[in-house]
Amino acid sequence: MSRRFTAALLALAATGSVAGAATGCDAAREAAGDIVSSATSAVASAAQQKMDEIKDGANATGDVTAGPTSADGDRTVATVTAANPKSTTADYTVMVLFRDDGGNLLDTVVLTLDDVPAGASKSGTARSNRTLEGPTTAEIARALRH
After folding, report:
1. Is residue 19's pLDDT more than 50?
2. Computed from CA positions of residues 63, 66, 72, 74, in that sequence, does the dihedral angle turn out positive or negative?
3. For a surface tag, which of 3, 8, 22, 85 has the fewest beta carbons within 10 Å of its beta carbon?
């Protein structure tokens, strides 16, 4: 074999190895994404079940707002505020969604604000279940006054 031919074969073999490694990395990245997606779906389902446990709750999504997100250690947090328009003290159970800039669901949490005074507001902190990467927003998916 000539040196050029041997060098060409080595180059071709190296390229094939790199391509194979890149494909392996892509597959690993996709598998990790699938695992995170499945975990996020499971958390969202558990949050929905928690909301469904509330009996005699009135839809109060309009009474609740989520503030901007920020980092608190390795978690993402948002201040959630319930404004109780009723004439009696009420408890609020709130499902908060954390989303990325593309609108993709990253995490779901359920927050309870107990004893919100009549005609007043009370705030609490929604804290992500895991570390969230990149810019996020918090939105109120569902809120029950009970």
Report:
1. no
2. positive
3. 3
Task: Please enumerate in sequence order all residues whose Cβ is within 8 A of that of 72, keeping only pairs 6 or more positions apart, or say none.
Answer: 125, 127
Helix (H, G, I), strand (E, B) or coil at 135: coil
- Tokens 């928690």 belong to 50
Q: Name 87's bridge partners.
A: none
DSSP codes, 74-126 = TEEEEEEEEE--SSS-EEEEEEEEEEETT--EEEEEEEEEEEEPTT-EEEEEE
**What's the pLDDT score for residue 144?**
97
C-alpha angle 111/55/42, rounded to 5°?
Answer: 50
Q: Compute the distance between CA of residue 23 and CA of residue 50 in angstroms, rounded to an integer.
A: 40
**Does residue 92 contact residue 60 with C-beta atoms inside 8 Å?**
yes
- pTM of the full predicted structure? 0.70
